[in-house]
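To whoever is on call:

I kicked off a structure prediction for a single chain this morning and the downstream step that reads the tokens threw a length-mismatch warning. I double-checked the sequence; it's 196 residues and nothing unusual in it as far as I can see. Pasting both halves so you can look.
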Amino acid sequence: MARIRPVDPAPVKPASAGLPPYPGDLTRESALVALFDQHYTGLLRLAVLLGADDAEDIVAEAFCQLYRRWNRLRSTEAALPYLRSVICNLVRMRVRHLQVVRKHTERPGGPTDSAESEALLREDQRALVDALKGLPARQREALVLRYWLSLRETEIAAAMGISCGAVKSHTARGMAALTRVLTGHSRLPGKEEEHR
């Protein structure tokens, strides 16, 4: 009787070859799905409150960047703060880009908000959101991260890429400006206060 020798298993091919993904990819995929399911709406609102006119695109781009850089995260717990930070940066870049574009083009009428932005806001929130939109970007970001997301100063500093002292300063100035506007004592500060 002939003896049957075991055959060496075929080498594992990458997921792009049509086979199931590697176990590490499954962990990443399931973690991203869980993050998306639990935090998408909140991240969308964050983008809207920071002044994004294309909030869905910004949140989608943030998730894409997280997917590409997943292996660089310290831990899976760092994913949500990373998303917040990316959203802050993307909104900031988008607002700067739109300021340059608007400077070089004439547009009749005022800016219009996207449908998803309008759908997320209730009538009683519109006055506050309008006042927030009038604040300088750093003050708006600090206030939204502090009072809407209830983040600590260290988390806000990490998301905005500034020091804790700067977070306190932006938060205090933003609150003072909002209080003046919402109580009807003055108009919103101009761009000259943004750099203070």
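Update from on-call: the warning came from a stale cache, not from the record. Cleared it. Sanity check on the structure: The chain has two domains: 23-104, 123-191.
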